[in-house]
Design goal:
The chain is α+β, with helices and mostly antiparallel strands and about 550 residues long. The chain has three domains: about 220 residues, no CATH class; about 110 residues, no CATH class; about 90 residues, Galactose-binding domain-like (Jelly Rolls, Sandwich), CATH 2.60.120. It contains ten helices and 31 strands. The strands form eight sheets. A six-stranded antiparallel sheet has the order 1-12-11-8-3-4. Strands 13, 23, 24, 26, 29 and 31 form a six-stranded antiparallel sheet that branches. Strands 2-5-6-7 form a four-stranded antiparallel sheet, with no helix packed on it. Helix 4 packs across helix 5, helix 4 runs antiparallel to helix 9 and helix 4 crosses helix 10. The longest helix has 16 residues. The N and C termini lie far apart (about 65 Å).
């Protein structure tokens, strides 16, 4: 009976993890965990502390690893594509297909991976850990932390944004991070949805949680940003925009075709911090802007303005190496294959700029060739100083012709500069802007709502959303199968809604209370196909017309 009980517990966890597009407590995130230095997501050995506080199971067979009541260390290895489990070097199980599931016993306990540090502290994880065999290397496995979206955000928000930026800034970061978890730009990994580094969004686990960022998560519970088609937006963000954000198509290539510039995304269009800022798409305008420091939302950032300088000889050495490395991206033409083929540097010229002044194409001329370089990240990685790439591609190029000629770049911003500027959000919050105003400044034409979810026949679906005084609460219903009856319960109020093919938004603000509101939905039609559904979401902040 005990074995059956524990199997049922694990099955329950797995079923919970499979739910998507429901309230934050039910949305499961699969976060890949890297090593302490964020160098790899593939392992051949992993150890877990506090054996008495965790349980391990082979999910392929339901076999529970014999329990240890002492503070020994569980070690999991892989050999011939099968797992082995040890306790203090004593073999407990072998030839396990996996995935191997690791869960804490009791809500007060976390999973502790031996030797794994985050912010200099022992990393701790909520939810459960799944060790799953790599699809690329049979001698390796991935560490996947599966947990609710809210608990995932608790390990993201205080690590993506300084908590000193204040509650409203943290709330804007929370919504952006929630959106990115629900709708990432690309799914680069087969075994998990999101990595735990800056390549996705920073996730450090339970040992870095903070009370103020927890409050930001609570006060935006269930809220995401939708575009004009009512689709969750791709909520890109970066540290510092430099006073002017860039349009998506001028910073990112198409994730499928690799075309650059890519197709535009209307809500990720270039945004100046002040309406009087002109587009910076010429050398003259960019130079005037980035060699000065006009007041802007992210002007408190240490990277609001910066400069880098190289002697000609120094820059030749840098470029002769970085152009080889970056030629592999496909955004340098012609490719540089050997350092000796670089030659003597003659000039560097920006060919195209975005509205933020970001260089999206430049030309490097030597006595041996003319190299065309595209895309902001490639450009940043070409011009390294002391082995570190440029903070951004928002810069102007000055050649100082003297006895010892130098190249000096003047720039602004840190990161790709698309979408929300974290330092900008911090200053906007200090000036009294609310989180929705911050988001609607950086993401154009968006609305804030609950996560859209499909309500199928004969099932009750729950939602949870935070509501503030003065907000709207409009229930939006899409009814592609022409269903007739919908029952909605908002806290203790029950509504019977007669559906139509085209349903106008229904204002339900009067049923909402300040704080967390619990909503449930049930389709009550009879003799309908079980695959029929309506799609529902609740708008709490309409798009702003400008």
């Amino acid at each position: 009976m005990k074995k059956i009980k524990y199997i049922l517990i694990f099955i329950f966890i797995l079923l919970s993890a499979s739910v998507s597009y429901a309230n934050d407590s039910n949305i499961a995130v699969r976060a890949g965990i890297s090593d302490t230095n964020f160098k790899t997501y593939l392992f051949d050995t992993i150890e877990f502390n506090d054996a008495k506080n965790i349980e391990l199971m082979d999910s392929a067979t339901g076999y529970i690893i014999p329990k240890k009541d002492s503070d020994c260390v569980y070690k999991v290895t892989i050999e011939n594509n099968l797992f082995r489990i040890y306790a203090d070097d004593v073999l407990l199980a072998r030839n396990l297909s996996g995935p191997v599931l690791v869960r804490p016993i009791g809500e007060e306990n976390f999973i502790s991976i031996k030797g794994l540090k985050r912010k200099g502290k022992q990393a701790l994880y909520r939810g459960y850990i799944e060790l799953t065999r790599s699809s690329k290397d049979i001698t390796k496995f991935s560490i996947v932390n599966v947990l609710s979206l809210n608990n995932y955000l608790r390990g993201v928000v205080p690590n993506e944004m300084p908590v000193r930026f204040g509650l409203e800034a943290l709330k804007s970061q929370t919504v952006a991070a929630r959106n990115y978890a629900v709708a990432p730009r690309i799914k680069a990994y087969k075994e998990f949805d999101l990595c735990d580094s800056v390549a996705c969004q920073v996730y450090y686990g339970a040992n870095t949680e903070n009370d103020l960022s927890d409050k930001a998560i609570e006060e935006t519970d269930g809220i995401i940003a939708l575009d004009s088609d009512n689709t969750p937006i791709l909520a890109l963000y970066s540290s510092t925009a430099g006073g002017y954000t860039e349009s998506y198509e001028y910073a990112f290539s198409d994730p499928k075709t690799r075309e650059f510039p890519s197709s535009d995304i209307p809500y990720l269009s270039s945004v100046p911090d002040k309406k009087e800022f002109e587009p910076l798409n010429s050398d003259e305008k960019a130079e005037k802007f980035y060699t000065s420091a006009p007041e802007a939302f992210d002007d408190n950032s240490p990277y609001y303005r910066w400069s880098k300088e190289w002697s000609v000889e120094e820059l030749e050495k840098v470029l002769s190496k970085t152009l080889i490395a970056q030629s592999a991206t496909g955004f340098i033409s012609p490719k540089l294959l050997n350092e000796s083929d670089f030659g003597k540097l003659l000039s560097i010229k920006a060919l195209k700029r975005g509205n933020s002044g970001k260089i999206i194409e430049l030309e490097i001329t030597t006595d041996k060739n003319v190299f065309n370089v595209k895309k902001e990240l490639v450009i940043r990685r070409c011009f390294q100083k002391n082995g570190i790439s440029l903070p951004s591609a928002n810069f102007v190029i000055n050649y100082i012709d003297s006895q010892n000629p130098v190249y000096k770049f003047y720039g602004g911003g840190f990161g790709h500069g698309v979408g929300l500027s974290q330092w900008g959000a911090g200053k906007m919050a200090s000036l009294g802007y609310k989180f929705d105003e911050i988001l609607q400044h950086y993401y154009k034409g968006i609305k804030l709502s609950s996560v859209p979810q499909k309500i199928y026949m004969y099932k009750t679906y729950t939602d949870k959303i935070y509501y503030s005084d003065g907000e709207t609460a409009d229930l939006v219903i899409k009814n592609p199968y022409k269903l007739n009856n919908l029952k909605v319960k908002i806290n203790d109020k029950e509504l019977e809604i007669k559906l139509k093919s085209e349903n106008k938004p229904i204002n339900i603000s009067k049923y909402f209370e300040k704080g967390i509101n619990n909503i449930s939905y049930t389709i009550t039609d009879e003799e309908k196909n079980l695959g029929n559904y309506v799609e529902i979401f609740i708008i709490v902040k309409e798009a702003v017309d400008e």
